[in-house]
């Protein structure tokens, strides 16, 4: 019994001490971050971005919770942040619904919530949302393809799409954006099958595309880089050449380091970024709130469209001219 | 007379229904291709294809089925033995695959390295390391089931949830890329033949030789039918069950290496995802009872390739991937239903009645 008491006291002290330390210094801003999980390189980059920006050196105290794709655990994590009385809460919601109660609790506690990446559909009790505009990414890929095909004198585009996990916001936005452009210019969309954002998925789908549409396609759109890696292996095995100057124009999204390396190697024709580094934008929002102003409700992150010089062409999205970024060793080095 | 005996032999062949199911699934393609005006046999065409890397490989849908179905076929071997000996299933094989792949890639890349083209340790160390982890997992499951008498599903539920997570830990929560040609061999080609298929064939041959030459197959069945009676007859039932789980883990390890080699990376989150279900389904499609006892290894293997044939067929028919699972389910229901005991009994009765009628006339 005595032993148990000692352990209990020690445990309580261990939990309380950090809390007291935070309370002691007023200028430290405490931030709670309920992350989705760790399922991809993209996610890891997102986590690391937050850990870098909200570091002790920068005057923050970050409580980070990896929710491992468990929506109940995520709401529990947010409630524990309320108990800890943190100054700000960051949520990357695993699912879009069922948030109203928890967000009301945050509001009652007077803690501003900043939503990043994925969206919350059934409540607006958060200060701001920071994320990517997947629709814009899709539109950019489409408009780039139009401009590039015109520059190359290709007038017939037969397109195969390997889409992401069906129903994910990235898949819906990218498909909607790209298909809108395809419809506008009357392109031939041959097929769209899901590769679940994985390399194995991309490989298997492309293997079957190569047989079903032998010699009938000249564009392959992969909705993330991992699918593009798989599609490349499958096309290699089928003797189909891809990349600038070859049979097939290969378009990819995400633009992770490995993806950019393939752009540089002349395999992927163009790669459309999905920026995982939300933390700097979140910090801006926090500063705005701290200064007593109202932040913008929707903050879209700056994203880049990558290609080699020969594939860089001018194009517009809804009348807005776009700038493309040339892939160099420095760019690859700096990418997450 | 001779003719009739061949017919009866085919009728009584225990693999008749699994084989017919597989052929029916593939026959759908003939109808489809004929209907769209293509060469009716285009699904079955196998050609030699020049790859971009200047190699030559066998190319065609049938090759895809043999290639892509191999992981499940390898898993199905172990699953058949486990089902037979313990009347239960090992639901951890998919997760164990992922763990073995992760451990292998972690060894090859070095801990904490997320992308490499050169190997940190000799290839064979990584491969054997991965397979060894599979064997360990199998021994763990086997111990729980055989010696602690925990129900197989509960016992293997532990690694079902834990193994994948351990794999992620080993890989530092990252996808570890081992972009090395030598490592890619196991998911590539030996000459013109897919390596994965060769590995699956080797596993099948070695296992069936072992089962036949050592009477082990009979022992396993006997333990599955009645463990107590087998023990009294002098068989060490516990050790037999332990052994089948260990073998199942071994094959999960091999399948994991093949899956990782295909994508030259350890994608811990996705390798082997839901494969345990496909492996169990293979056993069922092969006409085996999940209640243990008598088993047919060949049936399970045919079952595994039937599952892949369905997937490839759905791709060939251009069924949208959102609807594909529904069609898959319908086909599986049909195959399982025609093999169900009441239906089988019904057909037997009918043919017997016919024979009686024929004899009377």
Q: Which strand order does the major sheet of chain B show? A: 3-4-7
N-to-C series of helices and strands of chain A: HEHEHEHEEHEHEHEHEHEHEEEEEH
Averaged pLDDT of chain B: 92
Fraction of helical residues of chain A = 40-55%
Number of domains of chain B: 1
Number of domains of chain A: 2
**CATH uppermost class of the largest domain in chain A:** Alpha Beta
Shape of chain A: elongated
Gyration radius over CA of chain A: 23 Å
Instruction: Please state how the strands of the largest beta sheet of chain A are arranged side by side.
Output: 7-6-8-9-10-12-15
What share of the residues of chain A does DSSP label as strand, in percent? 15-25%
Under CATH, the homologous superfamily of the largest domain in chain A reads Response regulator
State the helix count of chain A.
11
End-to-end separation of chain A: 52 Å
CATH third-level topology of the largest domain in chain A: Rossmann fold
- Strand content bin of chain B: 5-15%
Low-confidence stretches of chain A: 16-25
Count of beta strands of chain A: 15
Low-confidence blocks of residues of chain B: none
The secondary structure category of chain B is mainly alpha
Notes on the protein architecture:
The complex is a heterodimer of chains A (336) and B (361). Chain A has 336 residues and is an alpha/beta fold. Chain A folds into two domains: 17-132 and 275-300, Response regulator (Rossmann fold), CATH 3.40.50; 134-274 and 305-334, Rossmann fold, CATH 3.40.50. In chain A, 44% of the residues lie in helices and 20% in strands. In chain A, helix 5 (134-152) packs parallel to helix 6 and helix 7 (199-212) crosses helix 8. The termini of chain A are far apart. The relative contact order of chain A is 0.12. By secondary structure, chain B is mainly alpha-helical. Chain B has a single domain, classed as Orthogonal Bundle (ABC transporter involved in vitamin B12 uptake, BtuC), CATH 1.10.3470. Chain B is built from 16 helices and seven strands. Chain B is globular and about 80 Å long. At the A-B interface, strand 7, helix 7 and helix 8 of A face helix 3 and helix 14 of B.
